[in-house]
């Protein structure tokens, strides 16, 4: 599936003040995690998907030029390392190796690029938070920075997507774009756009607001929505989940049409809810999307328990997020106080880690 990212941010691979191309010793690239709000799995079959960046889960890649032109098994080496950790082979090394070959072809550096790339990744692996795409994007930007190349958005996307297809098999492209986005984005059929958000305090109160129900807050929803992500403690299985759905859709063609159609309706409606700060309605779309994913076999008992815990703690809506069969869930909170209550409820229910993510726009990781 070809993709044309339509974005409002810029890849900054040649910041002012750097040495001339060919003389840099180190290049740096950055990216971050992401979470799917609605549309996972259906997006592979043409449905839209709504994703949110997770800025606190950052990835930094540093590419250091390696002197000498002697033969070696790999002209570019990759290693993962965090603070105080011993460098290890990245789990997505096959994808990165494919990316390396295509990067050399795109930039005309075949045979002339020798570098060691060290990746510091805070995105947990196997949790549906975009770790493979974020690492790939950081590597692309680090190598480009090392060479003094400016890569346009499409080239960056295509290089990251090449790595993603090796890492996960069939990849929609949403991860490859979302790990560099600055605000929630809508992705469909190879195109993406970042979404505007209402100003604080704007938006029409939902009819259920303030009635004492789960979605009630007693005040206009505005743009103070937050997303709480919880790690179930069990790695997801994206490839297995994709194959599970493929086989089911082949056996039951009507199931695929109904699933994709319903998810599409929910996602488009959620975009309007987000634009107007209708958190009660937005939450209801999340929970309904979770029901669809659970019925089609993507959720787990542990994820379902976390979803119920979030709703019991006052979240307007919650669902599994990502490839499924483990991984993470995501819950909406209509304010900081509600977010803390949801976090507490999720931890009591067994979440091993939680993150609170703003619904609004934030500065690009490369700025």
From TrEMBL:
Pathway: Isoprenoid biosynthesis; isopentenyl diphosphate biosynthesis via mevalonate pathway; isopentenyl diphosphate from (R)-mevalonate: step 1/3. One of its GO terms (biological process) is isopentenyl diphosphate biosynthetic process, mevalonate pathway. Residues 1-28, 192-221 are annotated as: Disordered. GO terms for molecular function: ATP binding; mevalonate kinase activity. It is found in: Cytoplasm. Its EC number is 2.7.1.36. It is an enzyme of class 2 (transferase). Residues 271-350 form the GHMP kinase C-terminal domain. The keyword Repressor does not apply. Residues 103-178 form the GHMP kinase N-terminal domain. GO terms for cellular component: cytosol. It comes from the Bacteria. Its main location: cytoplasm. InterPro entries: GHMP_kinase_C_dom, GHMP_kinase_C_sf, GHMP_kinase_N_dom, GHMP_knse_ATP-bd_CS, Mev_gal_kin, Ribosomal_Su5_D2-typ_SF, Ribsml_uS5_D2-typ_fold_subgr. SUPFAM superfamilies: GHMP Kinase, C-terminal domain (SSF55060), Ribosomal protein S5 domain 2-like (SSF54211). Pfam families: GHMP_kinases_C, GHMP_kinases_N. The keyword Endoplasmic reticulum does not apply. Keywords: ATP-binding, Cytoplasm, Kinase, Lipid biosynthesis, Lipid metabolism, Magnesium, Nucleotide-binding, Transferase. PANTHER family: MEVALONATE KINASE. NCBIfam families: mevalon_kin (TIGR00549). Belongs to the GHMP kinase family. Mevalonate kinase subfamily. This is mevalonate kinase. It comes from Streptomyces carminius.
């Amino acid at each position: 599936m070809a993709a044309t990212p339509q974005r409002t941010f810029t890849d900054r691979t040649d910041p002012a003040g750097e040495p001339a191309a060919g003389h840099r010793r180190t290049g740096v690239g950055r990216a971050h995690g992401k979470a799917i709000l609605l549309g996972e799995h259906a997006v592979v079959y043409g449905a839209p998907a709504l994703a949110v960046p997770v800025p606190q889960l950052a990835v930094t890649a540093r590419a250091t030029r390696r002197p000498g032109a002697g033969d070696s098994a790999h002209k570019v080496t990759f290693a993962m390392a965090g603070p105080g950790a011993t460098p290890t082979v990245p789990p997505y090394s096959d994808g990165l190796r494919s990316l390396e070959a295509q990067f050399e072809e795109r930039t005309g550096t075949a045979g002339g690029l020798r570098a060691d790339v060290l990746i510091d990744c805070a995105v947990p692996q196997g949790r549906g938070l975009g770790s493979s795409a974020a690492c790939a994007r950081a590597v692309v930007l680090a190598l480009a920075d090392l060479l003094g190349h400016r890569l346009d958005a499409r080239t960056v996307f295509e290089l990251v997507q090449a790595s993603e297809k090796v890492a996960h098999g069939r990849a929609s492209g949403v991860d490859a774009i979302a790990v560099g986005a600055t605000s929630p984005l809508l992705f469909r059929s190879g195109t993406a756009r970042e979404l505007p958000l209402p100003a604080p305090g704007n938006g029409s109160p939902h009819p259920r607001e303030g009635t004492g129900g789960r979605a009630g807050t007693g005040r206009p929803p505005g743009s103070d929505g937050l997303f709480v992500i919880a790690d179930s403690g069990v790695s997801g299985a994206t490839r297995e989940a994709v194959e599970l759905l493929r086989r089911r859709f082949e056996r039951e063609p009507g199931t695929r049409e109904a699933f994709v159609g319903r998810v599409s309706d929910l996602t488009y409606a959620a975009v309007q809810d987000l634009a107007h700060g209708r958190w009660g309605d937005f939450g209801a779309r999340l929970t309904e999307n979770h029901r669809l994913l659970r019925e089609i076999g993507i959720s787990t008992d542990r994820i379902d328990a976390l979803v119920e815990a979030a709703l019991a703690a006052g979240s307007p809506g919650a669902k599994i997020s990502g490839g499924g069969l483990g991984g993470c869930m995501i819950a909406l909170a209509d304010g900081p106080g509600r977010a803390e209550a949801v976090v507490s409820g999720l931890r009591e229910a067994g979440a091993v880690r939680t993150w609170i993510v703003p619904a609004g726009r934030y500065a690009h990781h490369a700025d």
